[in-house]
Protein backbone atom coordinates (compact mmCIF):
# COMPACT_ATOMS: atom_id res chain seq x y z
CA UNK A 1 0.00 0.00 0.00
CA UNK A 2 1.43 3.42 -0.94
CA UNK A 3 2.28 5.74 1.90
CA UNK A 4 0.69 8.70 0.11
CA UNK A 5 -1.60 9.45 -2.81
CA UNK A 6 -0.69 12.66 -4.64
CA UNK A 7 -2.98 14.28 -7.19
CA UNK A 8 -1.20 16.37 -9.81
CA UNK A 9 -3.47 18.77 -11.69
CA UNK A 10 -1.88 19.59 -15.04
CA UNK A 11 0.15 17.43 -17.46
CA UNK A 12 2.31 20.24 -18.79
CA UNK A 13 6.09 20.26 -18.44
CA UNK A 14 6.06 21.12 -14.72
CA UNK A 15 3.47 18.52 -13.79
CA UNK A 16 5.21 15.81 -15.79
CA UNK A 17 8.61 16.61 -14.33
CA UNK A 18 7.15 16.46 -10.82
CA UNK A 19 5.73 13.02 -11.66
CA UNK A 20 9.15 11.92 -12.95
CA UNK A 21 10.78 13.12 -9.73
CA UNK A 22 8.30 11.11 -7.67
CA UNK A 23 8.81 8.13 -9.97
CA UNK A 24 12.54 8.10 -9.17
CA UNK A 25 12.74 9.36 -5.60
CA UNK A 26 9.37 8.38 -4.11
CA UNK A 27 8.55 4.89 -5.41
CA UNK A 28 6.23 4.28 -2.44
CA UNK A 29 4.03 7.22 -3.43
CA UNK A 30 0.99 6.77 -5.68
CA UNK A 31 0.63 9.78 -7.99
CA UNK A 32 -2.23 10.44 -10.40
CA UNK A 33 -2.20 13.19 -13.05
CA UNK A 34 -5.41 14.98 -14.06
CA UNK A 35 -5.33 16.98 -17.29
CA UNK A 36 -8.16 19.08 -18.73
CA UNK A 37 -7.20 18.47 -22.38
CA UNK A 38 -8.72 15.43 -24.08
CA UNK A 39 -5.39 14.65 -25.73
CA UNK A 40 -1.78 15.62 -25.08
CA UNK A 41 -0.87 17.49 -28.26
CA UNK A 42 2.76 18.33 -28.92
CA UNK A 43 2.40 22.08 -29.22
CA UNK A 44 4.36 25.14 -28.20
CA UNK A 45 7.43 27.11 -29.15
CA UNK A 46 10.96 27.18 -27.76
CA UNK A 47 12.18 26.77 -24.20
CA UNK A 48 15.69 27.28 -22.83
CA UNK A 49 17.56 25.68 -19.93
CA UNK A 50 20.44 27.08 -17.91
CA UNK A 51 22.84 25.06 -15.69
CA UNK A 52 20.53 25.01 -12.65
CA UNK A 53 17.75 23.53 -14.76
CA UNK A 54 20.12 21.07 -16.43
CA UNK A 55 21.12 19.75 -13.01
CA UNK A 56 17.53 18.58 -12.52
CA UNK A 57 17.51 16.96 -15.97
CA UNK A 58 20.71 15.06 -15.18
CA UNK A 59 19.41 13.92 -11.79
CA UNK A 60 16.36 12.41 -13.49
CA UNK A 61 18.60 10.71 -16.08
CA UNK A 62 16.98 12.58 -18.94
CA UNK A 63 20.09 14.38 -20.18
CA UNK A 64 21.25 11.92 -22.85
CA UNK A 65 17.76 11.66 -24.30
CA UNK A 66 17.31 15.44 -24.38
CA UNK A 67 20.71 16.15 -25.90
CA UNK A 68 19.54 14.30 -29.00
CA UNK A 69 16.77 16.87 -29.56
CA UNK A 70 18.56 20.01 -28.33
CA UNK A 71 18.58 23.02 -30.63
CA UNK A 72 22.35 23.36 -30.50
CA UNK A 73 23.04 19.64 -30.85
CA UNK A 74 24.85 18.06 -27.94
CA UNK A 75 26.85 21.19 -27.13
CA UNK A 76 25.89 23.46 -24.20
CA UNK A 77 27.74 26.48 -25.60
CA UNK A 78 24.88 28.50 -27.10
CA UNK A 79 26.28 32.01 -27.07
CA UNK A 80 24.09 35.03 -26.40
CA UNK A 81 24.87 37.53 -29.16
CA UNK A 82 23.54 41.03 -28.53
CA UNK A 83 22.81 43.05 -31.67
CA UNK A 84 21.39 46.45 -32.34
CA UNK A 85 18.99 45.41 -35.08
CA UNK A 86 16.35 48.16 -35.12
CA UNK A 87 18.06 49.82 -38.09
CA UNK A 88 19.16 48.74 -41.56
CA UNK A 89 22.84 48.48 -40.64
CA UNK A 90 22.68 46.37 -37.50
CA UNK A 91 25.78 45.38 -35.55
CA UNK A 92 26.88 43.16 -32.67
CA UNK A 93 27.92 45.00 -29.52
CA UNK A 94 28.24 42.19 -26.94
CA UNK A 95 28.44 38.41 -26.78
CA UNK A 96 28.69 35.90 -23.97
CA UNK A 97 31.24 33.12 -24.08
CA UNK A 98 32.67 30.27 -22.06
CA UNK A 99 30.65 29.24 -19.00
CA UNK A 100 28.36 32.23 -19.50
CA UNK A 101 27.15 30.62 -22.74
CA UNK A 102 26.06 27.34 -21.13
CA UNK A 103 22.50 27.01 -22.44
CA UNK A 104 20.34 24.30 -23.97
CA UNK A 105 17.29 25.00 -26.15
CA UNK A 106 14.34 22.79 -27.09
CA UNK A 107 11.02 22.72 -28.87
CA UNK A 108 8.40 22.53 -26.14
CA UNK A 109 6.39 19.82 -27.90
CA UNK A 110 9.45 17.58 -28.29
CA UNK A 111 10.33 18.12 -24.65
CA UNK A 112 6.84 17.10 -23.53
CA UNK A 113 7.06 13.92 -25.65
CA UNK A 114 10.44 13.03 -24.10
CA UNK A 115 8.98 13.42 -20.60
CA UNK A 116 5.97 11.27 -21.48
CA UNK A 117 8.21 8.58 -22.96
CA UNK A 118 10.19 8.50 -19.69
CA UNK A 119 7.07 8.00 -17.57
CA UNK A 120 6.72 4.30 -16.69
CA UNK A 121 3.03 4.51 -15.78
CA UNK A 122 1.23 6.47 -18.52
CA UNK A 123 -2.05 4.94 -17.32
CA UNK A 124 -1.87 7.35 -14.38
CA UNK A 125 -2.61 10.28 -16.71
CA UNK A 126 -6.35 11.00 -16.79
CA UNK A 127 -7.39 13.19 -19.74
CA UNK A 128 -10.52 15.31 -20.05
CA UNK A 129 -10.49 16.06 -16.31
CA UNK A 130 -10.99 19.79 -15.86
CA UNK A 131 -10.42 20.59 -12.18
CA UNK A 132 -13.08 22.78 -10.53
CA UNK A 133 -12.45 22.75 -6.78
CA UNK A 134 -11.56 20.64 -3.78
CA UNK A 135 -13.05 19.91 -0.37
CA UNK A 136 -10.84 19.60 2.67
CA UNK A 137 -11.63 16.82 5.16
CA UNK A 138 -12.74 17.49 8.73
CA UNK A 139 -10.25 14.86 9.89
CA UNK A 140 -6.66 16.26 9.69
CA UNK A 141 -5.47 12.96 8.24
CA UNK A 142 -8.50 12.41 6.01
CA UNK A 143 -8.31 12.70 2.25
CA UNK A 144 -8.95 15.73 0.08
CA UNK A 145 -11.77 15.37 -2.45
CA UNK A 146 -11.28 16.82 -5.93
CA UNK A 147 -14.24 17.86 -8.06
CA UNK A 148 -14.08 17.95 -11.87
CA UNK A 149 -16.25 19.69 -14.43
CA UNK A 150 -17.69 16.41 -15.72
CA UNK A 151 -19.13 15.68 -12.25
CA UNK A 152 -16.55 13.05 -11.31
CA UNK A 153 -14.45 13.16 -8.15
CA UNK A 154 -11.14 11.79 -6.89
CA UNK A 155 -9.38 11.70 -3.52
CA UNK A 156 -5.79 12.30 -2.47
CA UNK A 157 -3.57 13.02 0.51
CA UNK A 158 -1.76 15.86 -1.24
CA UNK A 159 -3.00 18.07 -4.08
CA UNK A 160 -0.42 19.77 -6.30
CA UNK A 161 -1.53 22.41 -8.79
CA UNK A 162 0.70 22.45 -11.87
CA UNK A 163 -2.05 23.83 -14.09
CA UNK A 164 -0.40 26.94 -15.46
CA UNK A 165 -0.94 30.67 -15.39
CA UNK A 166 -4.76 30.35 -15.30
CA UNK A 167 -4.50 27.78 -12.48
CA UNK A 168 -7.85 26.58 -11.16
CA UNK A 169 -6.03 25.08 -8.17
CA UNK A 170 -4.62 28.51 -7.29
CA UNK A 171 -8.12 29.92 -7.59
CA UNK A 172 -9.54 27.30 -5.24
CA UNK A 173 -6.65 27.57 -2.75
CA UNK A 174 -6.88 31.36 -2.48
CA UNK A 175 -10.66 31.25 -2.33
CA UNK A 176 -10.35 28.97 0.71
CA UNK A 177 -7.78 31.29 2.31
CA UNK A 178 -9.93 34.36 1.65
CA UNK A 179 -13.06 32.72 3.07
CA UNK A 180 -11.25 31.79 6.26
CA UNK A 181 -9.86 35.32 6.61
CA UNK A 182 -13.34 36.78 6.12
CA UNK A 183 -14.76 34.40 8.73
CA UNK A 184 -12.19 35.78 11.19
CA UNK A 185 -13.36 39.31 10.41
CA UNK A 186 -10.19 40.18 8.44
CA UNK A 187 -11.90 41.84 5.48
CA UNK A 188 -8.82 43.62 4.13
CA UNK A 189 -6.78 40.42 4.21
CA UNK A 190 -9.60 38.55 2.49
CA UNK A 191 -9.58 41.10 -0.35
CA UNK A 192 -5.81 40.82 -0.65
CA UNK A 193 -6.01 37.03 -0.86
CA UNK A 194 -8.75 37.20 -3.49
CA UNK A 195 -6.51 39.46 -5.59
CA UNK A 196 -4.07 36.56 -5.86
CA UNK A 197 -6.51 34.35 -7.75
CA UNK A 198 -6.16 35.78 -11.27
CA UNK A 199 -2.97 36.51 -13.18
CA UNK A 200 -2.63 40.09 -14.42
CA UNK A 201 -1.62 41.52 -17.78
CA UNK A 202 1.99 42.72 -17.79
CA UNK A 203 1.56 45.19 -20.66
CA UNK A 204 3.74 42.98 -22.88
CA UNK A 205 2.70 41.20 -26.06
CA UNK A 206 4.99 38.65 -27.67
CA UNK A 207 4.76 37.45 -31.25
CA UNK A 208 6.14 33.92 -31.60
CA UNK A 209 7.10 32.13 -34.78
CA UNK A 210 9.04 29.05 -35.88
CA UNK A 211 11.32 29.45 -38.91
CA UNK A 212 12.49 26.31 -40.73
CA UNK A 213 16.19 26.81 -41.37
CA UNK A 214 16.53 24.30 -44.20
CA UNK A 215 16.19 26.33 -47.35
CA UNK A 216 15.24 29.61 -45.61
CA UNK A 217 17.39 32.33 -47.09
CA UNK A 218 16.10 34.95 -44.68
CA UNK A 219 17.48 33.38 -41.52
CA UNK A 220 21.21 34.06 -41.83
CA UNK A 221 23.99 32.59 -39.71
CA UNK A 222 23.87 35.41 -37.16
CA UNK A 223 20.25 34.68 -36.26
CA UNK A 224 20.97 30.98 -35.87
CA UNK A 225 22.81 31.78 -32.65
CA UNK A 226 20.91 33.18 -29.69
CA UNK A 227 20.50 36.80 -30.68
CA UNK A 228 19.06 39.21 -28.21
CA UNK A 229 18.14 42.17 -30.40
CA UNK A 230 16.51 44.45 -27.86
CA UNK A 231 12.91 43.73 -28.80
CA UNK A 232 13.44 40.19 -30.07
CA UNK A 233 15.24 36.93 -29.44
CA UNK A 234 15.96 34.01 -31.74
CA UNK A 235 17.50 30.62 -31.05
CA UNK A 236 17.57 27.16 -32.67
CA UNK A 237 15.43 24.23 -31.50
CA UNK A 238 14.69 20.71 -32.82
CA UNK A 239 18.32 19.72 -33.53
CA UNK A 240 18.89 23.09 -35.17
CA UNK A 241 16.28 22.51 -37.88
CA UNK A 242 13.98 25.25 -36.60
CA UNK A 243 14.63 28.78 -35.43
CA UNK A 244 12.42 29.94 -32.54
CA UNK A 245 11.77 33.67 -32.91
CA UNK A 246 10.02 35.82 -30.30
CA UNK A 247 9.45 39.54 -30.77
CA UNK A 248 8.38 41.72 -27.86
CA UNK A 249 6.20 44.82 -27.66
CA UNK A 250 6.07 46.38 -24.19
CA UNK A 251 3.66 49.04 -22.94
CA UNK A 252 4.14 49.60 -19.19
CA UNK A 253 1.08 51.85 -19.04
CA UNK A 254 -1.11 48.79 -19.69
CA UNK A 255 0.39 46.70 -16.88
CA UNK A 256 -2.33 45.62 -14.47
CA UNK A 257 -5.17 46.39 -16.87
CA UNK A 258 -7.65 43.82 -18.14
CA UNK A 259 -6.55 42.37 -21.46
CA UNK A 260 -9.49 42.16 -23.84
CA UNK A 261 -9.55 39.13 -26.08
CA UNK A 262 -7.86 35.72 -26.04
CA UNK A 263 -4.45 35.50 -24.39
CA UNK A 264 -3.09 33.56 -27.37
CA UNK A 265 -4.18 33.90 -30.98
CA UNK A 266 -2.96 33.55 -34.56
CA UNK A 267 -1.95 36.77 -36.32
CA UNK A 268 -1.15 37.50 -39.98
CA UNK A 269 2.57 37.76 -40.70
CA UNK A 270 1.94 41.23 -42.14
CA UNK A 271 1.19 42.54 -38.63
CA UNK A 272 4.61 41.45 -37.37
CA UNK A 273 6.44 42.58 -40.49
CA UNK A 274 4.89 46.06 -40.20
CA UNK A 275 5.74 46.26 -36.48
CA UNK A 276 9.42 45.61 -37.22
CA UNK A 277 9.65 47.51 -40.49
CA UNK A 278 13.06 49.14 -40.87
CA UNK A 279 15.00 46.55 -38.88
CA UNK A 280 18.10 44.96 -40.39
CA UNK A 281 17.37 42.74 -43.43
CA UNK A 282 18.54 39.52 -41.75
CA UNK A 283 15.90 39.96 -39.07
CA UNK A 284 13.16 41.12 -41.41
CA UNK A 285 13.80 38.03 -43.54
CA UNK A 286 13.02 35.78 -40.59
CA UNK A 287 9.59 37.34 -40.09
CA UNK A 288 7.92 35.86 -43.17
CA UNK A 289 6.38 32.90 -41.36
CA UNK A 290 3.20 32.10 -39.44
CA UNK A 291 2.87 33.91 -36.11
CA UNK A 292 0.98 33.63 -32.86
CA UNK A 293 0.35 36.50 -30.48
CA UNK A 294 0.72 35.98 -26.72
CA UNK A 295 -0.52 38.50 -24.17
CA UNK A 296 1.89 37.96 -21.30
CA UNK A 297 0.23 37.58 -17.92
CA UNK A 298 2.02 37.08 -14.62
CA UNK A 299 1.04 35.91 -11.15
CA UNK A 300 1.58 38.50 -8.43
CA UNK A 301 3.98 37.72 -5.58
CA UNK A 302 1.91 35.22 -3.63
CA UNK A 303 2.14 35.21 0.18
CA UNK A 304 2.31 31.39 0.05
CA UNK A 305 2.53 28.51 -2.40
CA UNK A 306 0.95 26.16 0.16
CA UNK A 307 -2.19 25.84 2.24
CA UNK A 308 -2.42 22.74 4.41
CA UNK A 309 -1.92 19.79 2.07
CA UNK A 310 -2.40 21.75 -1.16
CA UNK A 311 0.60 23.18 -3.04
CA UNK A 312 1.30 25.11 -6.24
CA UNK A 313 4.26 24.78 -8.58
CA UNK A 314 5.47 26.30 -11.83
CA UNK A 315 3.34 28.93 -13.56
CA UNK A 316 0.47 28.21 -11.18
CA UNK A 317 2.68 29.61 -8.41
CA UNK A 318 4.83 32.21 -10.16
CA UNK A 319 4.04 32.74 -13.85
CA UNK A 320 6.50 35.39 -14.96
CA UNK A 321 7.62 37.37 -17.98
CA UNK A 322 9.95 35.43 -20.32
CA UNK A 323 12.86 37.87 -20.39
CA UNK A 324 15.27 35.66 -18.46
CA UNK A 325 14.22 32.44 -20.18
CA UNK A 326 13.70 31.01 -16.70
CA UNK A 327 9.97 30.34 -16.33
CA UNK A 328 10.06 26.65 -17.22
CA UNK A 329 13.29 26.13 -15.31
CA UNK A 330 11.86 27.60 -12.13
CA UNK A 331 8.93 25.21 -12.44
CA UNK A 332 11.37 22.32 -12.77
CA UNK A 333 13.18 23.45 -9.63
CA UNK A 334 9.85 23.53 -7.78
CA UNK A 335 9.01 20.05 -8.99
CA UNK A 336 12.38 18.57 -8.08
CA UNK A 337 12.60 20.07 -4.58
CA UNK A 338 8.98 19.18 -3.75
CA UNK A 339 9.36 15.65 -5.11
CA UNK A 340 12.55 15.04 -3.16
CA UNK A 341 10.97 16.29 0.07
CA UNK A 342 7.86 14.14 -0.31
CA UNK A 343 10.02 11.13 -1.10
CA UNK A 344 11.89 11.23 2.21
CA UNK A 345 11.31 8.05 4.29
CA UNK A 346 10.43 10.15 7.35
CA UNK A 347 7.43 11.76 5.59
CA UNK A 348 4.07 10.23 6.41
CA UNK A 349 0.40 11.11 6.07
CA UNK A 350 0.50 12.44 9.64
CA UNK A 351 3.33 14.95 9.12
CA UNK A 352 2.84 15.86 5.46
CA UNK A 353 2.27 19.54 6.28
CA UNK A 354 5.93 19.89 7.36
CA UNK A 355 7.62 19.14 3.99
CA UNK A 356 5.03 21.27 2.20
CA UNK A 357 5.80 24.20 4.50
CA UNK A 358 9.54 23.78 3.90
CA UNK A 359 8.98 23.62 0.14
CA UNK A 360 7.27 27.01 0.37
CA UNK A 361 10.04 28.48 2.52
CA UNK A 362 12.81 27.28 0.19
CA UNK A 363 11.30 27.78 -3.25
CA UNK A 364 9.04 30.84 -3.01
CA UNK A 365 11.79 33.44 -2.35
CA UNK A 366 13.94 32.07 -5.17
CA UNK A 367 11.20 31.91 -7.79
CA UNK A 368 9.81 35.33 -6.92
CA UNK A 369 13.27 36.92 -7.05
CA UNK A 370 13.82 35.44 -10.53
CA UNK A 371 10.42 36.78 -11.63
CA UNK A 372 11.40 40.29 -10.49
CA UNK A 373 14.70 40.06 -12.34
CA UNK A 374 12.92 38.88 -15.47
CA UNK A 375 10.65 41.93 -15.44
CA UNK A 376 13.67 44.23 -15.06
CA UNK A 377 15.48 42.44 -17.91
CA UNK A 378 12.53 43.11 -20.20
CA UNK A 379 12.61 46.80 -19.37
CA UNK A 380 16.31 46.96 -20.17
CA UNK A 381 15.87 45.03 -23.43
CA UNK A 382 13.26 47.52 -24.59
CA UNK A 383 15.04 50.68 -23.38
CA UNK A 384 12.25 51.61 -20.97
CA UNK A 385 13.97 50.94 -17.64
CA UNK A 386 14.13 54.01 -15.34
CA UNK A 387 17.95 53.76 -15.32
CA UNK A 388 18.04 54.44 -19.07
CA UNK A 389 16.72 57.98 -19.06
CA UNK A 390 19.22 58.95 -21.80
CA UNK A 391 17.98 56.22 -24.14
CA UNK A 392 14.60 55.75 -25.78
CA UNK A 393 13.21 53.22 -28.29
CA UNK A 394 12.33 55.97 -30.76
CA UNK A 395 15.76 57.58 -30.81
CA UNK A 396 17.37 54.17 -31.03
CA UNK A 397 15.39 53.28 -34.15
CA UNK A 398 16.64 56.51 -35.80
CA UNK A 399 20.19 55.23 -35.49
CA UNK A 400 21.27 58.24 -33.43
CA UNK A 401 21.13 56.66 -29.99
CA UNK A 402 22.36 54.85 -28.06
CA UNK A 403 26.11 54.82 -28.46
CA UNK A 404 28.00 51.54 -28.45
CA UNK A 405 29.25 52.32 -24.96
CA UNK A 406 25.67 52.82 -23.75
CA UNK A 407 24.64 49.55 -25.39
CA UNK A 408 27.49 47.68 -23.72
CA UNK A 409 26.39 49.17 -20.39
CA UNK A 410 22.83 47.92 -20.97
CA UNK A 411 24.15 44.46 -21.85
CA UNK A 412 26.26 44.44 -18.69
CA UNK A 413 23.21 45.27 -16.55
CA UNK A 414 21.23 42.50 -18.27
CA UNK A 415 24.02 40.00 -17.62
CA UNK A 416 24.25 41.05 -13.96
CA UNK A 417 20.56 40.23 -13.55
CA UNK A 418 21.44 36.64 -14.45
CA UNK A 419 24.11 36.19 -11.79
CA UNK A 420 21.71 34.10 -9.66
CA UNK A 421 22.44 31.23 -12.04
CA UNK A 422 26.06 31.07 -10.93
CA UNK A 423 27.48 29.91 -7.60
CA UNK A 424 24.47 27.90 -6.40
CA UNK A 425 22.77 24.71 -7.53
CA UNK A 426 19.35 23.18 -7.09
CA UNK A 427 21.16 20.31 -5.38
CA UNK A 428 22.34 22.65 -2.62
CA UNK A 429 18.83 24.06 -2.22
CA UNK A 430 17.44 20.54 -2.04
CA UNK A 431 20.02 19.46 0.55
CA UNK A 432 19.13 22.49 2.68
CA UNK A 433 15.43 21.64 2.43
CA UNK A 434 15.99 18.01 3.43
CA UNK A 435 18.21 19.03 6.34
CA UNK A 436 15.53 21.45 7.52
CA UNK A 437 12.94 18.67 7.25
CA UNK A 438 15.06 16.29 9.33
CA UNK A 439 15.57 18.96 11.98
CA UNK A 440 11.89 19.88 12.26
CA UNK A 441 10.68 16.28 12.31
CA UNK A 442 13.39 15.43 14.85
CA UNK A 443 12.27 18.25 17.11
CA UNK A 444 8.65 17.09 16.82
CA UNK A 445 9.62 13.56 17.81
CA UNK A 446 11.68 14.83 20.76
CA UNK A 447 8.77 16.89 22.03
CA UNK A 448 6.60 13.78 22.12
CA UNK A 449 9.19 11.65 23.93
Structural description of this entry:
The protein has 449 residues and is of the alpha/beta class. 37% of the residues lie in helices and 22% in strands. An 8-stranded mixed beta sheet has the order 5-4-13-14-15-12-17-16. A hairpin with a 6-residue loop joins strand 4 (80-84) and strand 5. Helix 10 runs antiparallel to helix 11 (353-381). The longest helix is centred in the last third of the chain and has 29 residues, at 353-381. It is globular and about 75 Å long. The model is unreliable at 215-230 (pLDDT under 50).
Which labels suit this protein?
single chain, 449 residues, alpha/beta, 8-stranded mixed beta sheet, 6-stranded mixed beta sheet
Strand content: 15-25%
Please give the radius of gyration in angstroms. Answer: 23 Å
Cα-to-Cα separation, first versus last residue? 28 Å
**Shape descriptor:** globular
Structural class from helices and strands? alpha/beta
By DSSP (H or I, 4+ residues per run), the number of helices equals 14
Low-confidence stretches: 215-230
Helix percentage: 25-40%
Widest β-sheet, arrangement of strands = 5-4-13-14-15-12-17-16
Strand count: 19
Q: What average pLDDT do the residues reach?
A: 86
Q: Major beta sheet, specifics?
A: 8 strands, mixed
Amino acid sequence: MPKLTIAIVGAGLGGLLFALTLQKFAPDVNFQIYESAVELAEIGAGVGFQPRTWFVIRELELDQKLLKIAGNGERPDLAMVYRKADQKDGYTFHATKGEEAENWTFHRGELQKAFLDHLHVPERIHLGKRFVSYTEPNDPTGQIELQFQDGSTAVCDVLVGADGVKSAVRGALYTHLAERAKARGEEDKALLLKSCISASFTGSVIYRGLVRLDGNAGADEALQKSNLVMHAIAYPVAKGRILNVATVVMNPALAGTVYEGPWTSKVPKEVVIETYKGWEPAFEGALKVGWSKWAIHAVKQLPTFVDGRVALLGDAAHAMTPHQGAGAGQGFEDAYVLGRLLGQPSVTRDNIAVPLKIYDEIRRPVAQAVAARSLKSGQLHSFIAPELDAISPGLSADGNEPTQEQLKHVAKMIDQLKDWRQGTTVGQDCDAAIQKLDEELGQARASLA
